[in-house]
Amino acid sequence: MRSLYGHMIYGTANGQDANDAYPCINLHDARVVEHNQIDEIKMLYSSIDSTSWELILKPIENLKRFTYEHAGAVVKSAEYDGLGIADHLHKYASHSLQHLDLTCNIEYNEEDQFVGDLREFKLLRTLRLNAEAFVPKYDNWRSRPEVEYDRLADALPTSIQAVTLVDWFADNDPLDLARLIEEKHKLPELRIINLEGTWVLTQSHLDLYKSVGI
After folding, report:
1. How many angstroms from the chain centroid is the CA of residue 119?
2. What is the dihedral of CA 83, 5, 91, 140, to 10 degrees?
3. Which residue of 38, 98, 99, 141 is 20 to 30 Å from 65, comparing CA positions?
């Protein structure tokens, strides 16, 4: 088994509620943690908490692609913890991960979406995250609090080639993409920036991106 795919998957550290009739597979029942040769995980429209993700990731030796779309209470109300998931990926897959797609498609506050510093993912090439993922909104950071996360260039590895930001709004840009371009020398391989959401790029923006090879 090399790939693990799922849709509307529910997983919490406490296991399945015996009274729960919702037709979702519990990760503990699925025994996915026994497969250590998985190189791709793709869970869409699912609800899996951070503790369950650690159980899944711990035995996997060389994970290359990770996609998780959190759907929250639509599936089952497992807490979304972007930073916790990112920390588990850092612990178990930073040596091998090449593609990271981690999004929350329901209304959570910004601190839930925060993922922190990704610079130690040395092989990471493509990244897709909520636009608020690098914007801490609380005082007690749980991971590498000394890093300034207000610029993508200060949070991404030099290997990154393509970045997609989801739910990005041009009128309320939390990352200031102009500053990312100013710091482009820190990301020599970056060639593609995708913005998913309500946004308008002026010709001056396009000219600036083109001037640095994006």
Report:
1. 13
2. 10
3. 141
In sequence order, the β-bridge partners of residue 99 are 65, 126
**β-sheet bridge partners, residue 65:** 40, 99
Is 178:170 a contact under the CB 8 Å cutoff?
A: no
Residue 116 has a CB neighbour count (10 Å cut-off) of 21
Residues 6+ apart with CB under 8 A from 76: 10, 12, 20, 22, 24, 47
| Lowest mean pLDDT across 41-45, 156-160, 208-212 | 208-212
Q: Of the spans 5-9, 59-63, 91-95, 200-204, which averages the highest pLDDT?
A: 91-95
Retrieve residue 181's tokens: 């371009």
**CA atoms of 66 and 19, how far apart (whole Å):** 31
pLDDT, tens digit, 9 for 90 and up, residues 154-195: 788 999 999 998 876 555 454 556 666 667 788 899 888 888
What is the full DSSP assignment across 80-117?
P-HHHHHHHHHHHHTTT--EEEEEE-S---HHHH----
